[in-house]
Design brief:
3 domains, alpha/beta, Beta-clip, about 425 residues, single chain, six-stranded mixed β-sheet
Length: about 425
């Protein structure tokens, strides 16, 4: 566990309706990394954030090598307009460099990745050449330096190959391995506690009593957090009991960096989470100018961050993507980058209120002009989880928009960009 704790007022809000950019600015300004630095093997580093820049101490490739199977030659030996007959001087498989320079007037049989022999500067593809015993016929027209990978062409020794704060992807692991790294300086995973509250909630797989519902949000949250690289502890379903909720929050704050839940933080008589968080720290209600997902509760429990997301399942997912993920990135040492938007064509009409940003669940179809056509993925109510499961992404309508007409261009966020990003 990191030693840094948050101040109780780091999420203080005046209660005004917050545009999304304003909310994100406050999040980035108020949070610091809370996890400790450690070393992880290549096998353990995927999805972790680098604590510092990774600098290459070798060149990649470490020597000039052949990019194709073919014949390594001295370009100066080749005729410009007619075929050139050269004597076969060597055979060089990958991993077995030639120990002497290639003699003038000769060609070396080389294979992809083989070190270029001293003196040779060009590789001619094998299918363009004809071998006859101990000679080979090279066609005219080869460019000097063709099919030759130069030392350090990919990575030069001494350069930063991965910046500190970068969340390591599969290609990043490969880059680190390519310069000989076996262990990487990374931050420890963020430890996150998740729970649900409500006497009406039941665990999937158990019988439903009258008035009860299955708890879906907790399982969605666990999947989102795990996909984001967090170590998740499931505290289960807590009863609507003030003492139980308070004790569970206090225990979670001892063992975790962040506590996340959905619903249960309103002013209702049975919403005991708000009071418990207030007893143990502070809770501030943020009203976001977005739909779905306006209410978000951010607070501090014994110096640890508390994130209370909306209870409606789609609102919970949208606010997780746009508020919780940037927060978790800051706490976990990641450099947060906003997800990419792509242009699509609307295949439907939609009316909206000005002054709030709206996200619609859509699926894509091929468009006649090469721009994908977006259609609604189902009913758009914040409690309709099936339409989120059916969607390819979210169509984003800005605050000043008052509607959308068929054929209009709009910004599109693929769910693959914002969910389970490693």
């Amino acid at each position: 566990m990191g030693t840094l704790v948050l101040t109780d007022d780091c999420f203080a809000s005046d209660g005004s309706l917050l545009p999304l950019e304003t909310a994100l600015s406050r999040v980035r300004r108020g949070l610091e990394t809370v996890v400790v630095a450690e070393t992880a093997s290549l096998e353990q580093a995927l999805g972790r954030a680098l604590t510092e820049d990774l600098v290459a101490n070798v060149n990649v490739p470490p020597h000039d090598n052949a990019a194709v199977d073919g014949w390594a030659v001295r370009h100066g030996d080749l005729n410009a307009s007619t075929e050139t007959l050269l004597r076969v001087g060597a055979r060089i498989p990958a991993g077995h460099p030639l120990e002497y320079p290639l003699a003038p007037g000769t060609a070396a049989r080389v294979f992809t990745g083989a070190a270029m022999p001293a003196g040779a500067d060009t590789v001619v593809m094998q299918e363009d050449c004809r071998r006859d015993g101990e000679t080979v016929l090279i066609p005219p027209g080869a460019l000097a330096g063709a099919n030759r990978r130069r030392t350090g062409e990919d990575i030069a020794a001494g350069t930063v190959i991965l910046p500190g704060g970068r969340r390591l992807s599969a290609p990043d692991i490969g880059i680190a391995a390519s310069v000989g790294c076996t262990d990487l300086p990374v931050f420890a995973p963020l430890r996150v506690a998740v729970f649900s509250t409500g006497d009406e909630l039941r665990e999937p797989g158990t019988p439903l009593a009258p008035g009860a519902i299955y708890d879906s949000n907790r399982h969605s949250l666990k999947a989102l957090l795990t996909g984001f690289g967090c170590l998740v502890s499931d505290l289960g379903i807590l009863p609507d009991n003030p003492d139980t909720i308070r004790d569970s929050l206090e225990q979670a704050a001892r063992d975790h960096h962040v506590i996340v839940t959905s619903g249960g933080v309103s002013d209702g008589e049975e919403d005991h989470v708000r009071a418990a968080v207030g007893d143990l720290g502070r809770l501030d209600a943020w009203r976001l100018a977005i739909k779905p997902g306006r209410p978000v509760a951010l607070g501090v429990v014994r110096g640890r961050a508390f994130i209370g997301l909306p209870g409606n399942p789609v609102a919970m997912a949208v606010t997780f993507l746009h508020i919780a993920q940037p927060m978790l990135s800051a706490l976990a040492g990641y450099t947060w980058t906003a997800p990419a938007r792509f242009p699509v064509t609307a295949g439907f009409s939609h009316a909206k209120k000005s002054g709030r940003r709206e996200f619609l669940r859509v699926r894509l179809e091929p468009g006649a002009d090469g721009i994908p056509l977006a259609r609604l993925a189902g009913q758009q109510g914040s409690g309709i989880l099936s339409s989120l499961a059916a969607a390819d992404g979210l169509l984003e309508l800005p605050e000043d928009a008052t509607g959308l007409q068929p054929g209009a261009r709009a910004a599109y966020l693929p769910l693959s960009e914002v969910m389970c990003r490693r």
